[in-house]
């Protein structure tokens, strides 16, 4: 079994069970405990799980309250850069997240807009604004205040958007966007496909990380709006891949 295949199985086991011991994983996968420990170290570096005494536990989504206080000034600057991308009368999709919450603040007074979102906090913010709001139904992920699952995706099948703004949990060295939750990855992909223009809005902290479920590649977006200082090598790779970057 290749190392990548074995590590994928480890992630699958831990996400299913919530945790696992080194000895149990070694017996299950028929390798040494030393091999499992190296695998767990690599998976922790990739932000796919968290090590604990004698084993590892599943990586948890960051709670909404913690996200709100993280990189707040950067998120506000990124949101301000998005205001010019919205026009009167636009149908807009806002992905769930604290960066898109800041975007909601700066666009809420644009004339005659319709905002569709799967974020309860964004809907609560906009309920007293002139904007028309449509909330995707579904199962509530209480830790993040977002709606996920079958009913949310079914609603999105019937919509088309002039512009969409998306956040990300992780962006790896291959410029791929990923998230810890499979249902969330599927919903994000579906929403992006339905946008005439789709923007990924992310601060520096989201780069160099890897979560379990791939959402997209940076080239899938109209542009990436970020405060990251890319290296020359990264700029060259982005250009080669067709990624457009708007640096704030």
TrEMBL record:
<keyword id="KW-0805">Transcription regulation</keyword>
<keyword id="KW-0238">DNA-binding</keyword>
<keyword id="KW-0804">Transcription</keyword>
<dbReference type="InterPro" id="IPR050313">
    <property type="entry name" value="Carb_Metab_HTH_regulators"/>
</dbReference>
<feature type="domain" description="HTH deoR-type">
    <location>
        <begin position="3"/>
        <end position="58"/>
    </location>
</feature>
<dbReference type="InterPro" id="IPR014036">
    <property type="entry name" value="DeoR-like_C"/>
</dbReference>
<dbReference type="InterPro" id="IPR018356">
    <property type="entry name" value="Tscrpt_reg_HTH_DeoR_CS"/>
</dbReference>
<dbReference type="Pfam" id="PF08220">
    <property type="entry name" value="HTH_DeoR"/>
</dbReference>
<protein>
    <submittedName>
        <fullName>DeoR family regulatory proteins</fullName>
    </submittedName>
</protein>
<dbReference type="InterPro" id="IPR001034">
    <property type="entry name" value="DeoR_HTH"/>
</dbReference>
<dbReference type="Pfam" id="PF00455">
    <property type="entry name" value="DeoRC"/>
</dbReference>
